[in-house]
Known about the structure:
Order of helices and strands: EHEEEHEEEHEHEEEEHEHE
Oligomer: single chain
Strand content: 15-25%
Largest sheet: 10 strands, mixed
Number of strands: 14
Amino acid sequence: MASRDTRTGGLEDRARARQLLxxxxxxxxxxxxxxxxxxxxPFLARGLPIGLALIPEVRLDARTAxxxxxxxxxxxxxxxxxxxxxxELARLAERFEVLQHGCTHERVAGxxxxxxxxxxxxxxxxxxxxxxxxxxxxxxxxxxxPQDLYTPASFREAARRYPAIVNGRFWPRWLPLRSRLGGxxxxxxxxxxxxxxxxxxxxxxxxxxxxxxxxxxxxFHHWRFFDAAGRAKARPLAALHRLAERLAxxxxxxxxxxxxxx
Length: 262
């Protein structure tokens, strides 16, 4: 991993460094803190920053578009649960860069919460979600909507509150994109960061070697690394940790935070 020059504040080999951001989505008040420690501890120990996209006040009966219970829920019930109800997770999250991932991650009238043409509702959810994270002692630096689904109304409200917005592989046609020097794209004043989804860990070294100039964003989902009983899946976990080793060795890859790109 490329290292910072403490004398100049610059980055050694910055001109040829490839930038990478690693994010984990869906952690919430029902997530065992030990899961995140098991996954990302080896990265953090090597000085590799991880972004944690947290659901601020998770709905305990949330379901997918297909009607199945959301797999990120370790407990199910009625109503919602704020992140501060899991103080162990909140303390651990202080070691990560925090993003706001929706508010409750629920579906409303058949649509995900930010996939609705209701600016007032989007604003309320953005404010409530950020307040819930702050109650847990965390300050989010960017926003990511559940399932990457926005409407013009909800996107504009998110851009009013956050300097950066993370989305999936494409930007909707209605978005008024503006490019700046270096290829950075903005809309409604917010920096747009497009993620590449969840990478295949079959060949961790090959993943790193294939990185482009970027910045590239990989989005993982911690719950995919554990079975229904909460046991870690040994092979995927080992592959993830090999990725940490390879990134730490790569002199031409800079693992960065969203804040580094603003």
